[in-house]
Amino acid sequence: METQSEPDQSPSLLTFSFAIIGLVWYIVLWSIGLLGCRTGRRRYRMRPRSPLATAPSDSIPGVTILRPLKGLDANLYENLESTFTQEYPNFEIILSVADEQDQALPVARELISKYPSINARVIIGEEVVGVNPKVNNLIRSYREATHDILWVIDSGVSVAPGTLARSVDLLESSTRTKPPKRRVALVHHVPFVSAPEGFLGSRIEEAFLNTNHAKMYLAINTVSIESCVVGKSNLYRRSDLERVNGSLKPRAHTVSDDDQDCTRGLAAFGKFLAEDNMIASALWHELDLRHDLSCDVAHNAIGNMSLSDYVWRRVRWIRVRKHMVIAATILEPFTENLIASSIAAASLWYLFDIPVWLFLVVHHAAWLWVDLDVYESLAGHPLPADRRWWFISAWCLRELLALPIWFLAMLGNEVIWRGKKYEVLRAGEVKGTLSDGSNHKGLFTRWRQRDYHYQPLPNNHYDT
Questions:
Q1: What percentage of the chain exceeds 70 in pLDDT?
Q2: CA distance 348 to 330
Q3: d(Cα 379, Cα 45) in Å, to the nearest integer?
């Protein structure tokens, strides 16, 4: 007698494949995270003094420090003073403002008076070369810098006294190796944020940049398979920048007849909103040069950033990024803690019958521990006990907001930056829109109006 065949109890091949892919992806993410944590421990927990700090001034390359100013950033006096106190024998400082009435100007003048031995001056008045107001503010300082090595550092950033010497050491190190390595064209500093004002958006930004963002930033730059640079504090050579145009197409060392009229140098990046990232990418791809991270951080004190400010700031940069690296932007949600852990929990439950709740408890505890370890490496000390619960709460809120912010960013192409509205185009280029952005409203609250407009002066001049 024929027996009835048993129904197929074997697991679905498709489900099994997805479970394996999910588990492999989770392992890859942990490998990246641990690499960032390890890099933080090795690079930032000991910062030796560079021999350039005490070398004769005529034996080391000169550096021009460019600081574009706009308004009264949090801790502006301390931020600017940190460049006047650099332990490096051969540098000059050029502070630039677009408007003679800018509130930052008295602060700049006071510091120049306080440090008469430092070669420092102010340039007032911008030159419009594109839609990016920071580039417009910098262009005259860039052209009139005495030295080839430029250190472009945002007004919201302060640095340790030994930062410049250690950075020049890195910039010059590849030229001294035998056999010579792929030359370093840019040295950058990982941002490290503090939120003295205690606003909710400021705390979330602090928790994000000092943990998850820093961890991924360190890992990507350690692997160094692609340019990844945040432009709060960068050193590069003007002679290198004068050879690139932002096309990201490799070029020969000599300029052909076809591109003699092509705009090069800093002016070529006035059409980009993320000019810092594009400059780094151009040096990487067009000249086949590389970047390096200093063991210093770019300290950034955040002022009164609301929750709405935080959300729309993240939206802005995701919208810019999706026009520059669309594949990475689409993949971004799968690198976030909650989605990655959910995928891994489902995979481990299906493959090994591991309870989802048990895995998630262990995962989130371990993920948080790694993030706090990265914080400790960059800060030079553990998270203070009196700030611990506020920080962890902000960290949790950041994790919950990551996916909604990503969806919001993917639904549009317009961004607001320094009070003006722009439309993001291909490759990260932007164009201004008719609206000034002051009435922008979103899912949270309306943007606070800020006086961030850059207007050219009829008569540009120096301040001596």
A1: 87
A2: 25
A3: 9
